[in-house]
Amino acid sequence: MKTIRLNKLSELVDAVQEFDARSSVFRGICDDRHTLIPSVGWMPYDPGLSREKHERELFLKFRKRAIPYLDFQPADLWDWLTIAQHHGLPTRLLDWTYNPLVAAYFAVKDWKAHPDCRPAIFVSADLKLIDPQKHPDPFKLDRTYRFNPKHVTPRLAAQAGVFTIHPDPTQPVPADALVAKLEIEQGNQSEWRRALYRCGFHEESMFPGLDGLARHMRWLRMARVPAAPTAI
Nearest CA to 35 among 169, 192, 145? Predict the structure, then answer.
């Protein structure tokens, strides 16, 4: 895996030109010391149950209790897993995006809460794309795949969302599937976030809805950023 150091957002645009746009996915994280492991892989579990059984029971309970809150019927386990991940349930999915600017946004958005972090964007390529029709049970896989979810929520569409799905959620993305780490210079996060705002990447665009709008308006005032006419 190669390492590329970036000072400005424009350097990211140049750097990603070498990656295949059809198969390359990007994950922005606020600190490159974090391991690329799905959330359920970090979760404590009852020693009396296997980790997988605990995960399946949690997932089943979510499906049963989520029904009254849905305005559509998920077609299969893959839809359910996507919804669960979207709403914060620990799953064996790991969030990525096809858009490197979306990844950059997530790498720098919370920089004030993590002033000593080392923001970075990981690039993965050539992971095989899974066909849910051929693999109806996401818990019965023998390798890590790339998974294109249906856009069951506006947020997934806005973020050009894609996942990796891990047969063992305690294990990270395979090293041979990581082609690059794009390191964002520490201390430049504020400038990056302002540049991303000017390019249309901010809380309102990444999180469509009133919550995203409110957070975006708050950021504009707190950061003293001149708002575009449509943003005030």
Answer: 169
- Kindly give, in sequence order, each residue whose CB lies less than 8 Å from that of residue 76, ignoring residues fewer than 6 positions away: 132, 136
Judge whether 31 and 20 are in contact, CB under 8 Å: no
What is the per-residue burial (b if ≥16 Cβ within 10 Å, else e) of 135-168?
A: beebeebeebbbbebeebbeebebbbbbbbbbee
**C-alpha dist (Å) from residue 196 to 36, 119, 199:** 24, 15, 5
State how far the Cα of 100 lies from the Cα of 98, in Å rounded to an integer. 6
Give, for 120, the enclosing helix (H) or strand (E): strand 120-124
The tokens describing 159, both together, are 């973020």
Q: Are 212 and 204 in contact (CB under 8 A)?
A: yes
DSSP helix/strand/coil, 162 = strand
Measured in degrees and rounded to the nearest 5, phi and psi for residue 110 equal -110, 30
Taking CA atoms, 81 is separated from 12, 101, 146, 147, in Å, by 32, 25, 14, 11
| Sequence-separated contacts (24+) of 210-218 with Cβ below 8 Å | none
pLDDT tens profile 18-52: 998 888 999 999 998 889 999 999 888 777 778 88
Q: Structure pTM? A: 0.90
For residue 97 the two structure tokens come to 């995006």
Helix locations, the chain, DSSP H? 9-15, 51-66, 77-86, 100-108, 154-158, 189-198, 203-206, 210-222
Q: What angle do CA 107, 109, 114 make, to 5 degrees?
A: 80
